[in-house]
Structures are given as structure tokens and as C-alpha cells.
Amino acid sequence: MSQSTSLKSLLARHEAVLVLVIIVEVVFFQTLGRNFLVGRNISNVFRHSVEIGLLAVAMTPVILTGGIDLSVGSMMGLCAVLFGMMVNSLGLDPWVAGLAAIAFGALGGGLNAVLITRLNLPPLIVTLGTFSLFRGLAEALTKGAESYSGFPQSFLALGNSNIAGLPAQIWVFFAVAAGIWVLVHHTTFGRSFRAIGFSPEGARYAGIPVARNTSLAYVIAGAVAGLAAVILVSRLGEARANAGIGYELLAITAVVLGGVSIFGGSGTVGGTLLGWVALAILNNGLTRISDYRIMDQPVASVARELSGLLTGVLLLAALAIGASTKTLAVRRARKQSLAQKSATS
Amino acid sequence: MKNRTFFAALALLATLPFTSCSKSESKSKLTIALLPKSKGNQYFVTCEKGARTAAAELGAELKFDGPINSDPAKQNEIVENWITDGVDVIVAACENKDSISTALKKAQSAGIKVVTYDADSQMDARTFFVNQATAKGIGEQLIDTAASLTGSEGEFAIITGTLTAANLNEWIKHIKDRQADAYPKMKLVDIKPCDDQKDKAQQEATNLLSAYPNLKAIIAVCSPAVPGAAEAVKQAGKTGAVKVLGLGLPSENKAYVKEGVTQAVILWNVEELGYLAVMAGAAVAKGELVAGATEFAAGKLGTKSVVGDNIILGKPFVFTKDNIDKFDF
């Protein structure tokens, strides 16, 4: 009981710290940058990061079970190519092809799940394999050069228009994030993810179908990667084998920054969302600073290099703070119990 | 208690957009945004150098930004950020033609002028394309250079990328046409593909050297083939006897050129390309260069011809032992 409340309060504290980080970022970029808090830019913050947000929320259940999925970025490339082929070569309606791409994503996630749960292979190794496999397939299908474009305007609108003042695709993201949040935090099924991550043996003794539930996490991750691919294609207007390259690491960064333990067992979908927002604002905000220079260049023109660097700093700082508060809490508890012992003796 | 601070923070966050207003940018200076295919590539760093010269001459502000990795979404995001900035003109080298066009069209509908250079977008996503070299210009420069190296006679062979590459075939066609017209004593004996690999090019060149003992020159029309052919000629001990020339980056061939294995490397002057692109962008933004123009006064480069919606940089540049040290791309 005390164990779970202290964990919970630690997580709550971590989320409060992230909210603070986000506020600091907003104030900082609004003060130093140009056109930061304007409608078009706020839209861009989310429009440019929806795909990574999707991967991150879907990665959360996977990491909660103590697993990892390195294949989601490559899966995006494969699904993008399959989507393009279905629309351009088979003449399928983009929306039907979109659903099919999501199904292919789920299928790929299923492959990960089978290898991990049935053959008991480590998730890191399995998804490292499918990371190469999916990207390789995408490149083979397009001979590394072909790409697909010429999609109808109604489909491109998903990636490029606004609904109620926000990018159209952000509403899809909200729906997915809400779905995964409900699953993880408000169903017995979803709560089992943390139990599995905390102790797979314990979960098994408690009667949880560990293999089946773990599998579902990977299938969801694959399906959502398929959806992210469709959204990316609708934003760019072109489907290519290199879609989503490197996105898996950005998604994992958001999840870990959000306070989800990489060893599994603890973390929240809300934390992941906060981690994602903090990174999205950082990436965009730096591009707004054109009046200040760093190393003789306007900050905006080295924004990508800086955001990589600062993401690293932010992540390591968050982990260090998390670890040190945990150590402090443990030390304080030990001291208290020692004091109690000496008082009673 | 913790919840209260959380919500207070959220409330604060929510009010921010309304309490602050966006700063207005001073609009006196023309702002030109130059997009390379990738930022670290020496080719585009050299473009930027020329672009900076042009911007300084024009008294314009130049923004230079591009992707640092192969994420295909990055060029689009940079363009969208420039739309937010309200730049006057975007001058873009397009990595993925169709995806970047989506963003460039958005820029156009936001009132921003668009010019492309180096690699074109879809035609309706820009006003002009600054074309670094026409197929005719490249093909003719290659055969003219080969002719001057061999005294306009003897056998020569071509090493190409793949036999299906449209642009390479176009260049080869112009090589053949020009040779038939102007250099009747020269004879094209073979065309070999190297799959854009240096090793394969070296192997093909070695085969050519033994198959055609009278070979006078090897023309490489794809860039990996130039050092590949040079290595083959060097190892066969035919340095100087068989001339090597081709289309490539001076930096990749510098060593062979200095040793005298490779006689000429042909490429447009990349710095001038960056200069011309920015000059054209500025002229379009100011309304000085409009559709239908047939020529364009490009500052220190003089007058350049405009063919349709292509602004032509001109004849490719020949890098030789004498000038190659002056270039670092």
C-alpha cells in the first residue's frame, strides 16, 4: 500500500515537473522568439509532431510491460509504401487503403508479438530485427527510388487542413490517445500491462494471460504505426520508403521523458503526453528564435542541431531528478524507521 | 494541494496565448529563405556561399536552413516554419519532389513567392526553376572536352550509372549527336553501366582497357564512375595514355587530377548556382522577373537566358589541374 502510494506520488511529482518544464518553455520561446504563440505556429507544433505522438502513446503499453518496440518507425515506411501502392497501382479509395495500412501495421505488430511471446525472444532483439526487415521490405518494394503521389485533395486535407482551429489530424490523435488512456488506466486488461512489467512471474501466478495481453500491446503499436504512416503521407502528399525514419527513438524519448520506467511496471499515458508536448514545443520553439545568435548563427538556423542536444539534456535531467528523488525518499524512509526503532528500544 | 498547483499552472498556460501578442516583423528588408537538400553537404555549403554574396549585394536578409538527416518530412516542416515567419521568397532545392510541392503550394497561397534551384518541384509549385545545366550543355561539354584532350580522334568509351537512367541517357544522346556532327574521327566503342558504384566502375573500366587496347578516353557520366575509371587506368599503368574525364565533384577527384590520371572534371559552378538562385528569387519577389521573360540580368554573372520557366546557369565548368585547388566542394 505504502509502496504504491509513494510510486504514485513520485509519478505525480514527475508530471508536475513536466508541466513546469512546458510552462518555462512557452514563456522562454514567447519572450525570445518571433511568432511563437500565433495560431499558425501553434498548429505547426502539433501538425509536425502528431506522428511521433501517436507512436509514443502506442509505445507506452509496450514499455509498461517491460518491452520495447524499435520497429515502429520502419513499420511507418512499409505501411506508407503499401498505402501508396494500394491507391496508385490498385486504384483503391485512400480511406479504404488507409484502413488496410492500419491492418498491415497490426499484422506486423502481430509478427513481433508472436516472436516475443511464443518464442520467448527478447523484445529488443526481435524488434531490432523487424526494424531492418520492415524498412528493407519497403525499400525492396520501391527499389529504393519509386514513390507514390497524386493523392486526392480530400485525402491531403487530413494532413493539411484545420478543424475547429486545430490541425485535422490532431483530432485523430486525441481519439487514439483517449482510447489508449482508457485501456491502460481504466480496464482490468490494460492494468495488467503494468503488472506484467512489474513482475511477469507474479502476473502469471495471479492468473493474468501474460502472453495474450503482451501480444496486444505490440499489435496496437503496429496498428498505430500504420495510422501514423497514413497521416504522414496525407501531410506530405507523397509516400516513400524512408517515411518515419528515426521516429521510433523520438517516440521512446517522449515516453521515457514522460516518466514511464524503461524497465516496465510504472508510468502513465498522461506522462507520455506531457513528455511529447515538451519535446514538440522544444523542436518548434527553437525555430522561432531568429534575433539571437549562437556560435555566430541565428538560433533558428541551427534549431535542429540544438533541439537534438537539448532533448538529450532534458531527458538526462529528468531521469537524474527522478532517480535522485527516489533515492532521497528511500533514504528518508530508512532514517525514519531507524529513528522509530531507536525510540522503541 | 498538488492538484491545485497543477491546475493553476494549466490555467496560466491557457491564458498565455491571449495575454501576449505576436511581435510584428520589420518589413523594410527583403527576406529570402534558401532551402538546400541537406545542410551539411559540401555542395550546398558552397551554394550558400554564393547565396550570401548575392544577399549582401542586394541588401537582403538570407535565411539558410535544411534537413540534417534523411527524414523526408523535414523540408516540409522548414518551409512551413518560414510561412509562419512571413518570408518574402523561398528558394528551394527539392529532395522529394512531390512532398515538398505540398508545402511550397501552401507558401504560394500564403502570398510567398517560390523559386526552385538544383532540383525542381512540381511545375505549379514555383514560378521559375534555376536550371544548373541542360542535358545538351552537359553532353556537349563532355564530348568537347574529350575531343580537345585526344586531338579529336580515336576510340572512346562511356561509363554510365544504369542503362535505364533517363537523365544519363539524355546526356549520352547529346554526346553521340555532337560527336557525329563535329568529331567524325572519334569513335564510341562501348557504353557500360556501373550501377552508381565506384568499385563496379573500376572493374568495367579495367575490362574496357583490355578489350580496346587503342582506347584514347573514358567519359564517366555518373559521379562514382570518375574516380572508379581513374583507379583502373592508374592500376593498368596507362596514366596519360588513356584520358579520364567525367561529371563529378572536384573534391572526389582532386587526388587523381593532381596525379594526372584524370584530366578534367565537369560540373556547373556551384557557388554561381547559389548566387543566381538568390538573385532570381529576389527579382521574382520584387516583381522584376515575371513569367514570359526571355532573359535575366543576374548581377555579376551578367545576363542569363530564360527558356520557358527555366533560368539557365550556362555552360558547365571544367575543373582541371590548374584550377581544382580553388574549389572545396
Query: How many helix segments of chain A?
Result: 14
Give a quick account of the main beta sheet of chain A: strands, pairing sense, barrel closure.
2 strands, antiparallel
**Strand arrangement across the biggest beta sheet of chain A:** 1-4
Strand order of the largest sheet of chain B: 2-1-3-4-5-13-12-11
Helical content band of chain B: 40-55%
Q: Per DSSP, what share of the residues of chain A sits in E-state strands of 2 or more residues?
A: under 5%
Percent strand of chain B: 15-25%
Please state the overall shape of chain B, judged from the principal axes of the Cα atoms.
Answer: elongated
Pick out the low-confidence regions of chain A. none
Shape of chain A: globular
Radius of gyration of chain A: 22 Å
Detailed description of the structure:
The complex is a heterodimer of chains A (345) and B (329). In chain A, 75% of the residues lie in helices and 3% in strands. In chain A, helix 2 crosses helix 13 and helix 7 packs across helix 11. Chains A and B meet through helix 1, helix 2, helix 11 and helix 14 of A and helix 1, helix 3 and helix 4 of B.
